Every structure is written in C-alpha cells, then in structure tokens.
Amino acid sequence: MSDYVWWKHGVFYQIYPRSFMDSNGDGIGDLQGIIDRMDYLVDLGVDAIWISPFYESPMKDFGYDISNHKAIHPLFGDMETLDRLIISAHERRLRVVLDYVPNHTSDQHPWFLEARSSREHSKREWFLWKDPHPQGGPPNNWESFFGGSAWEWDKANQQYYLHLFLKEQPDVNWRNPDLASAMLDIMHFWLKKGVDGLRVDAVIACLKHPDFPDNPIHDNHPFTQIGLSQEPKYTVDQPDLHDLLREFRHVSDQYEDRVLLGETGLFDWESLMRYYGQALDEFQIPFNFQLMFTPWNVQAMQQKITEYYAHLPQGAMPNFVLGNHDAPRVATRFGHQNHRSVGMLLLTLYGIPTLYYGDELGMENGIIPPDQIQDPWALNKPEAGMGRDPMRTPMQWDASSHAGFTSANATPWLPVAVNYKECNVDIQRKDPQSTLHFYKKLLHLRRTSPALHRGNLNFLKGLPENILGYARLWEAQHWLVLINFGEDSCLLNLPEVEGDGKVLLSSHSRDETSVSLKNIELEPHESLLLEIGASFTEDH
Ligand code: GLC
Ligand code: CA
To answer: Which ranges of 149-283 does DSSP label H, i.e. alpha helix?
Structure first.
C-alpha cells in the first residue's frame, strides 16, 4: 500500500505511566515497567503508544505540572531509560507518542520562579499577570477547570496570575514571543529525539482573549458536563489559536512521518473541525471525545457518529476516543455487559481509535477510600464528581498481590481494583473466550483488513431499535458490524443483503462459522462482525 501512512490506519494505546507497571517496587509505575511489558503491547496488536507525562514535576497534577520539560522525573527513570524505551519500541515496530503540555507549567518551573521574582524580570511576561479588579478581588470572573477562581494572588508583587487548572499550574503567555520560542523548542527537543508524535495537552486553552472579559454565566452550555459553571467563551477556542497551531504543525512537519494529536475537548462540531486546519495544516488527529458524552443508546450513538462524519473536512481522517485518564472506565460508564461491544464499536468504526490501558481487559473503575484520594480535582471540587483516581488504578497483570503491578511488599500509589483476581492479563491470556482475546482478534482483523481500517462506513437501515448495524466496505471486501444494545435477544432479517455471512468475531464466542443474513439471532448485548462477500450495494 503505497499511500500507507502509519497514523491514519493504526491504533493508539494510552499508557498512564504511574499505573502501568512498577519495575522497582516503589509502588509507582515507571518507564522500565513499560519496557518490560512491551511484548504484551506488541502481542496485543496496537501500533503506537501514547505515554502521559513523566517529566520532572512536583506531581501536584501527577505530571501535568512540569518543572523541567526536557528532564525525566526520577520516579519514572532517566533519559537513558527513555532512550532504551524508544529503541525497544521501534525495534518492535511500535511508535511512541509523548505528551506535550503547552498551556501551563508547574509553579516550580524556573521560568515561573523567575517571572514571579520581580515585576521587572525579563521573563515576567512569560506568564499572565494582572492587577486586581478596580473594585478589588480577581481581575475577572474566570473559573479554573479544577474549581474556584482561575486567579491566584501573588503577595510579593501584588498581582494575580492566571491558572486555568491548579494554582500550582500557572498558564503561560503564548503572546510573548520569547515564551513561544522556548515552548516550541521543547517540541523540537522531543521530535529530534525520535518520538513519533506528540499529544498536545489542554490545547484549546493556550490562548486567552487579549482583553480578558468576564465569561458568560449560564448553566445550559455543554461545559457544565465537565464541571464548569460558566461558558469558557474567552478562555478556550480563541480564533487566533489556529495561527499558533499552524506553527506547531510547521515544527512537527520538519521531521519525517510525525503526528500531532490534540486534546480538543470541544462540544460543537464546527469548532472541533477547525482544529484540522483549513488546509489540513493543524492537527492530524484532533481528538473526538463526543462518544464519551453519549449514552449507550443506538439512536444517540448513530446520530453522533453520523454528524461527526458529515462535518469532517475533505481529506481529514476521523478519530474516536472512548476512554482515557480523565473519564470513567468504559466498562463502568456503559455497563459491564456492554464492555466488549464498546471495543467492537471503537475498533470497527471508520476512524483512528485510541484505546486506554486496561480497557482491553474490561477493567472497571476502582473504588478509592476517601483517605486515599489523590486526584487534586477530586480533592478541590468533590461536588463536581470528576475524581479521576478510579480510572487510574494499576494495570491488572495477574492474580498475585497488587495484581502483579508492583512487588508484594510495596503499596501501590492507588489501590488495585477489587476484581483483579478474575480480571487480569494472566487469566485472560489463558482463556480463548476472554475479553483480552476478543480485543486481540479485533486488533488483528482491523490491521489486516482494509475494510476495517480504511473502508467506507454505511449504516444499515430498517433495523430493530436496539440494533446498531453498519457495513464497512473496501473494494470487494464487505464486512458487517451488528451490535445489540438491548437486554433481549433479537432475531434479525437484514433487508439490504442476501446470502450467508461468515462469522469473523462475536463478543459471545459463537460456535457456528456462518449465519444466514435473513435469520440472525443476536444474544443480549452481543456484538458480531461478519464478512458478507461483495453483497452490499453502496447507493442507499
Ligand atoms: C488535560 C489532561 C488532564 C490534566 C489537565 C491539566 O486535560 O488530560 O489530565 O489534568 O490537562 O494539564
Ligand atoms: Ca517504580
């Protein structure tokens, strides 16, 4: 395939490094742990790993508060370990994507310490300082995503600084050219090192409205779903942000074959699509999170997916994210009984999938006793119910103590989820009917079949209300996906196709190898992948 571009047809796998594998028994996952488990990832069949931050950091937001962008926190290893990780991944044809956090630094970053040291310092304008409001208090009403005012009073120099996340995460000022070039230099640093791409954190917030107007307060805007009580009209998605994103892309395009993924948490399609760039010159993959906010319901899902495709710019590659380190586990959110169907959906839709570690086992949200809560979002703003510890519990490797994540006498940084004895890699690896095998087969089918990784998608018409069905078509390869969202079994007579379908995969491990397309019985919550020969006509 001469037009093969690795990121267009591959599957990304997100690793939250604190939680994946601890190699040295301190209870915290590390880079050596990822190296030690690399063969697992290759065997699973993913194409790229995206590793959340492991840079030097006071860990107020578990690494998203960076105090040195070009150094590795000793908890995770050192530069030599990372070099080995990249080599070891590349030897196995696995790509490596790192997190790039351009919106803020840690308050312990030397840039901020210098900026804070005096109003006259040359780096003062690298951050966003403001005098109090004429009537006193913060300069405007901007709210932090993590709760409370986004302004922190700096007593020494009698000004406020802006932080859209924690007060220990001051926002940088991208309108300052020196800051901009220092930040872009960090991109060069990692791309030069040979990483295959960067996932750009909180990117929609990088530029703020230059006049700092108050954000409108009303409670019927979609950002309330992530806990905000105001519309972030002047804090995110500013029009001139796109000039900056073209610069990001310009940097990345100076290196061969790299990809930029953007954390574009936007709720309306037009805004989201702008992040591809008018000339497709911004993100190759502006994350599409919309299915995360969609209930497990056929009509709702089909509508979101259809709308998304309809809005895609010409030539843009769609993508889907269903789980990550900021959202409840898919098996918990959509229901345990649906967890394989979630995998079927994610890996058979037309679009680049991002898989979150452990979802291939059906891992559930962990239960975190109140005195063990770590996530600052949960601690700062418990009422928002946005605590992220439950989805960051240790990867479940086996049935030994701490699920094999760390040594027996260590204390894992978060408690292991209670179901680890039944739900772990070791047990599932030995069971051909397990969720792990289901994912492995799906990943293999996706990789080897053009219909799945690049074919058109056509929804089937006239299906019972609990059945989501679509065809994936590539030349003579016609495949069908059928997902039963309902609690009852369902007899299907597919109106648009004739003959028999070859069973490629079922969430329910069927014995038969073929089914009549006029008479398919789907079990409750079953999802089925069929090959139907070239019997589907595209013009409807
Ligand atoms: C992004 C990250 C999240 C982090 C925040 C601040 O939303 O995904 O985990 O807390 O940015 O950096
Ligand atoms: Ca460790």
So the answer is: 177-193, 241-252, 269-273
pLDDT tens readout for residues 120-156 = 999 999 999 999 999 999 999 999 999 999 999 999 9
pTM for the whole structure: 0.97
CB 297 within 8 A of CB 486: no
DSSP-assigned letter for residue 518: T
The token duo for 54 is: 């492991």
Give the mutation target among 99, 165, 264 for probing the ligand 1 site: most ligand atoms within 8 A of CB. 165
149: its two tokens: 């005012």
Name the percent of the chain in helix, strand, coil, to the closest 5: 35, 20, 50
What are the beta bridge partners of residue 349? none
- Closest Cα partner for 137 from 230, 236, 214? 214
**How high is the mean pLDDT of the chain?**
96
pLDDT at 540 > cutoff 90 = no
Atom of ligand 1 nearest to the CA of 377: 10
Confidence label for 1 from pLDDT (cuts 50, 70 and 90): very low
Q: Which atom of ligand 1 is nearest to the CA of 104?
A: 12
Give the CATH number of domain 110-162; options: 3.40.50.300, 3.90.400.10, 3.40.50.2300, 3.30.1360.200: 3.90.400.10
